[in-house]
Amino acid sequence: MTEYTFPLSFQQHRFWYLEQLSPGGAYHLPIVLRLTGELRVDLLHEALQLVVDRHEVLRTRYQPDAQVQVVAEEWAVPLTIVEGDLDRIRAETLAEPFDLWSAPPLRVVLVRIAPDEHVLLMVVHHIACDGWSLGVLGRELSIAYTALHDGREPELPELPVQYGDYALWQRDRMSGDVLAAGLAHWANVLVGAPATLELPTVRPRPATPTLAGDRVQLAVPEPLTRRVAELAHRHGASVFMVVLVAYATVLTRLSGQDEVVIGTAIAGRERPEVVGLVGCFIDVVPLRLSTAKTSAEELLAAARRVCLDAYAHQDVPFERIVDHLRPPRDPARAPLFQVMCNGQDTPRHDVSWPGVEVTGEQPEPGVSKYDLTLDVHQRSGGLLLDLEFNRDVFDEPQMTGLLDRVVVVLDWLTDDTRPLFGDEPPRPAPQVERITAPKTHRPAGVEPRDELEALVLGHLRAALGDERLGVTDDFFDHGGSSLAAMTALVRIQQDTGHRLGPADLFGEATAAAFAARMHESDHESERNR
């Protein structure tokens, strides 16, 4: 079988790293279609194969240390046909982990409910896909099935590039002076910002997050939605920016902090060549927002400036911003920000198959990658606010109350003649760490004392790209990134067979301490025999 390799894009590197931290279904993207009617299973399989043949990223696997992605020139996509309890099959199909190295991370299962009713389950790992790509997959599968059913060739546009081309282009462009200037900009934006958001919680935060999530929704009344749109139009802003101001105001009020950093997703498809391509282009940018302004007009103007500046510098990969700033390391929290706000404007496409009624279903993921993620949906009947929350620390009544407060602020923003939240005092300001300017440290250079320390140090030096690192030097203090640490960990695991996890390396950030933990693990294994 012919194969060829490309580097991973920065986005792929990030999702590879996140998968190592939290293996399982947290980073799986599903398509669930209920198919009612006379389904031609043979044509469905042929249509799936045609789509996989078009997009190289659907035929790609990933080296265990994330150095390259390996594209197969051909790959026969498996279609598994099963019968049984739909809820159980769906849950297992969506959650079953992928081995990113052994095969492309694409799983397709057809559940037969009755002769004229099926449910199609497609799962793709985020390393190969994003929300926009799911729309591309659904649209192309529909076009291909329809054409094959009618006995003609599918009319799909030629793809001028493949994802590997994008990864090469991105790596080439985001280097040297261009990357340095972009990182300097983001350092200037974020230095002094709070590293954490200290919201009140209903239970203590666990040392290791489970990523267990839930969601609450609130429909904004149409009259208020109309006033929000009018406010945005008057100030040259977007509806998303108005909701962002309301969200930030609630978060700072609840936390007692004077500002907050909120992440927002960007599609990353500015180049026309990649608009119709399946792949992971999505990234995030941090928005540093202060709610110390005194009027709705000032709050909205400030948020507009922050958003436009972030959009203008969105091509700097978030992974590189984190590496450059090296914020305080905490396995229980995401770096730089722990809350998100997204405007949901991903294109939607009607799916129609001849002889088959196709109904899309949205499975409940049960996962929250951040403490809070607010998705803002603009619908004809009014805004829909969809809040995903971390069940480790929050509960449904608390989050319902948070959304109620967002609506209160939206109402105030459109008519700020009334006091906000009445006479309710804000929460006292907590003591939080601040993001500091990047520092450069020179390693002390102490040499290893045994073979295991030498092996660990060798991999840490290789990942860092600096032979001066000593066995007692902190890997992160000397410029190491979380991704580089994870790469070293995978190679250490391959060479030694030890299955210590990422938390061990992040908690033991020197070669000497990590080797000592491995020796301790060996002794524990001996005692338990």
TrEMBL record:
Coiled coil: none annotated. CDD domains: LCL_NRPS-like. Residues 447-522 form the Carrier domain. PROSITE patterns: CARRIER (PS50075). It comes from the Bacteria. Its cofactor is pantetheine 4'-phosphate. This is Carrier domain-containing protein.
